[in-house]
Design brief:
The protein is α+β, with helices and mostly antiparallel strands. Helix content is about 45%, strand content about 15%.
């Protein structure tokens, strides 16, 4: 959300610098799309930010600042409200889940707007993840590992299995997606896991995957995969230090829970 507020400030500056463009036929008013300039002052996001601060804006108004223009029949704020009803979960967090293709299907969202929205969500993810630099994560602390990957994995709509290749100090030397599955499964074979572990000279490894349902309780398949990877790792000499399942702002660590 901090990035959205920052973008609001940036758009405010652009508004001041291009005021004539808003009033004329060029600039942002392409194809005579309806803009926020046509709203009463009390309802204009830019003026509200100037007077009260960006924190007073609704989700739709914040999105409207990013979108800038609407369609021929609706203003940017109205387009933003409609977009919120289309997003997964019908709220602003759905921006973390929506794809470029899905955004382009929304009337009023073209290539540029879609790229801006996706870039905005990526900035938010990076800002949140920057609180814990990856190079400082010691992978014997499940909470820190889960917190770092929570931002990018909790909103995924399909299961993704990640392999973390660790060095001798339990730090991440390589991160990769091993499998992308369906809503409730993502197959990953020990052979594939240890192929990459050996290729990247792993001292040890850590597995992560998400549960799109938001409930991180391990399934029977999760226990089976973990058991096979532990056994294979012991034979090869590359131990599995943990298997962490990411849910909706919660997680389960096999090591922490005593499952391994």
């Amino acid at each position: 959300m901090c990035v959205i507020l920052a973008c609001a400030a940036y758009q405010m500056q652009a508004y001041r610098q291009n005021k004539g463009a808003f009033q004329g036929t060029g600039g942002y008013m392409t194809e005579k799309n309806m803009t926020m300039r046509e709203l009463p002052d009390s309802e204009k996001p830019y003026e509200k930010v100037e007077k009260y601060g960006a924190g007073v804006l609704s989700d739709a108004e914040l999105l409207a600042v990013i979108l800038r223009t609407g369609t021929k029949k609706e203003r940017a704020v109205e387009l933003a409200r409609r977009l919120l009803t289309i997003l997964p979960g019908k709220n602003i967090a759905g921006l973390f889940q929506i794809t470029m293709e899905e955004l382009l299907e929304v009337k009023g969202i073209g290539r540029v707007k879609a790229i801006e929205l996706l870039s905005l969500t990526e900035l938010v993810k990076r800002m949140l993840r920057s609180k814990i630099p990856k190079e400082e994560i010691i992978c014997d602390d499940p909470q820190k590992v889960a917190q770092y990957f929570m931002v990018s994995m909790r909103y995924l709509e399909t299961e993704v299995v990640k392999l973390l290749v660790l060095d001798g100090k339990n730090r991440i030397s390589k991160e990769m997606d091993l499998a992308v599955g369906t809503f409730d499964s993502a197959p990953a074979a020990p052979r594939e896991i240890f192929y990459y572990a050996l290729k990247h000279k792993a001292v040890s490894i850590l597995l992560l995957h998400n549960h799109p349902s938001g409930e991180p309780a391990p399934s029977r398949e999760d226990f089976y995969l973990t058991k096979r990877v532990i056994e294979s790792g012991n034979l090869i000499g590359i131990p599995l230090v943990d298997h962490i399942i990411i849910g909706d702002n919660c997680y389960v660590s096999f090591k922490e829970s005593g499952y391994m």
